[in-house]
Amino acid sequence: MQETPSLALTFLERSQALVDDELKRLLSASPAPSVRLSEAMAYSVLGGGKRIRPALCLAAAQAMGQDITKALVPACAVEAIHAYSLVHDDLPAMDDDNLRRGRPTVHIAFDEATAILAGDALQACAFNWLAQTPSISDRARLSMVAELAVASGQAGMVGGQAIDLESVGKTLTIESLETMHRHKTGALIEASVRLGAMTADPAPGDQLDRLTDYASALGLAFQVQDDLLDIEGDTNVIGKPQGSDLARDKPTYPSLLGIDGAKAHLQTLLDRALAQLDSFGDNAEPLRAIANYIVVRSH
Amino acid sequence: MQETPSLALTFLERSQALVDDELKRLLSASPAPSVRLSEAMAYSVLGGGKRIRPALCLAAAQAMGQDITKALVPACAVEAIHAYSLVHDDLPAMDDDNLRRGRPTVHIAFDEATAILAGDALQACAFNWLAQTPSISDRARLSMVAELAVASGQAGMVGGQAIDLESVGKTLTIESLETMHRHKTGALIEASVRLGAMTADPAPGDQLDRLTDYASALGLAFQVQDDLLDIEGDTNVIGKPQGSDLARDKPTYPSLLGIDGAKAHLQTLLDRALAQLDSFGDNAEPLRAIANYIVVRSH
C-alpha cells in the first residue's frame, strides 16, 4: 500500500503529460473563427486539473493489454466533456462559482455568453475527436460515440446535474444521493474506463463488465472523498472555498452518514472497486493505483 | 413557379409529420432521471417550427435516389442541434429573448439552469442518435458524426454565434457579415443536406459537392430573407418582435445593401442554389421546392 500512491502519481503524471499534449494538438487542429472563443476553450481545457478521467481511460486500455496511446483520443474526448460540464456548472444560473482550481472560472475570466459557447463547442469537439480515433475499427468508434453520448447526456451526467439542482435544500435518502451521483459524476467515470477498455477491439463482455463495476464503485468513492474534502480540506489546496456544499445546503455523504460513517463507506467502495481487478493481474496496476490515490488525495 | 411553393408545403408537411413522430420516439427511448429536464427537452424540440433543416436532409436523400426514411434519424439529429442552439441563443447572457415561435422561451417557461442543461442534453442526443442511424454502413455513420460535430462546433455554428456576439454595434463589411452567417446558420444547413445525401452510401463526391454548393447558397438566402422579414414582417407572423435586429444594432443585409439590394442579392443566391440541381432531374424537385419556399415564406 505504501507504493501505490507513488505509482499512481507516476502514472497520473505520465498520463497528464500525454493528454495535455494531445489536447493541445487536437484543439489547434480545428481553430475557431473567433479568437475569443478559441481562447476560452483552451482556458477551459488546458488550465490544469488532475486528469483523473483520461488517466482512467489510459489505465483501462493497459488493463486490457493494450498500448495506452491507443486510448489517447478517447481520453481527450472524455476530458473535453468533463471540461465543458465544469464550465456550464460554474455559470451564475447553475452553481455560480467564481473560482475553479484556484483560477477565475470561465465566465469570470471571459464572459457568460463566451462560457456557454465554449462549453457547447467543447462538447462537439469530443464527438468529432472520438469519431476519428485511430487504430480501432469503425464499429468500436461508433460504440464509443454512443457510449459517451449516453453517459454525458440526459440519462447520465446532465440528468445528474438536473437532479442535483432539484435537490438543493431537500433531505435526501442515501439511495437518492447515490442515484444523483451515479448520474452526475459516475456515468462519465464509467465511460472513461469503458472507452479505454474498448480499444481492445472487440473487448470481451465479461472483462468490460468487471471494469464497469470497478468504475461504478470508484465513481461513488470519488464523490464521498469530495464531500469529505469539502468539510476537512483547505481552500488553498482544494481550489474552491471549503465548506461550499454546506453553505449551499447541498446534501452530502457526511451530512447523511456522519464523517466516520462516510469514511467507512469510502473504504467499502474502494474494496469493492479493487476486487473487480483481481483477474487482470499486473496489467491492472495503474487502475489499482488510481483507486488508492483517489482515496488518499487531498484535493 | 406557381406550383413550387405548394409542392414545398406538401413536402414540408409530410417531412414535418415524419420528423415529429421520429423525434417523439427518439426522445422517449432514453428518458431522463429528471422529469423537469425531460419536459424542457420535449418543449424545446417538439414546440413546432418549420423543420426546414430536417426537410432539407430528407430532400437531399431523395435527390440521391434514396428512400427519404433512410435520412430520418440524421434529420432528427440535425433538428436536435438546431433546437439546442436556439435554447442557448435565447438565454439572458446571449440574445435574451423571451419569445420564440410565439411561445415563452425555455428559460422563461422553465428556468435558466434547466434551459442550459436541456440544450446540453439535446446536443448529446444528436450524436447518440446519429451513431445508431439504421440502414447505412458504420463508415457512413462515423462520417456523419464527424460532419455534424464540425458543422455545429467552434469551426461552424458555435463559432458563428461567437462572431455574431462580437459584431453587435460594429460596422461590418458584406464579406464579414457573410462569414458570420456561413458559420452561424450556413454550416448546419450544409450539414443537413450533406447528411441526407450521405445516405447514398457511398455518396459520389461530385454530387455531394454540388449539393453542398446548393446548401451554401441557400443558407445565405435564408439569412437574407430572415433579415428582410425582420424589417417587413409582422410580429404575429414571424413569432418574435419585428425590428428586433435593428433595435439591437445588429448588422443585417438590408442595413448594408438597402432593401432593394438585399432583395436582388436574395434572387442571385436562389438562382445559384437552383443551378446546382440541374443534373439531379426530378429527384431534386423537393430541394427546388424548398429553395423557392424559403424565398417566398412570410416567417
Q: Brief overview, please?
A:
The structure is a homodimer of 299-residue chains. Chain A is mostly helical and 299 residues long. The first copy, chain A, has helices spanning 4-29, 35-45, 52-63, 72-89, 106-109, 112-131, 138-152, 157-167, 174-197, 205-232, 235-238, 244-247, 253-275, 285-296; strands at 99-100, 103-104.
Q: What is the count of DSSP helices of chain A, taking H or I runs of 4+ residues?
A: 14
Determine and state the CATH class of chain A.
Mainly Alpha
> What is the number of domains of chain A?
1
Name of the CATH architecture of chain A: Orthogonal Bundle
- Determine the CATH superfamily of chain A: Farnesyl Diphosphate Synthase
Characterization of this structure:
Two copies of one chain form a homodimer. In chain A, a hairpin with a 2-residue loop joins strand 1 and strand 2. Chain A starts with a helix and ends with a helix. Helices cover 71% and strands 1% of the residues of chain A. Chain A has 14 helices and two strands. In chain A, strands 1-2 form a two-stranded antiparallel sheet. The radius of gyration of chain A is 18 Å and the shape is globular. Chain A is mostly helical and 299 residues long. At the A-B interface, helix 2, helix 4, helix 6, helix 7 and helix 8 of A face helix 2, helix 4, helix 6, helix 7 and helix 8 of B.
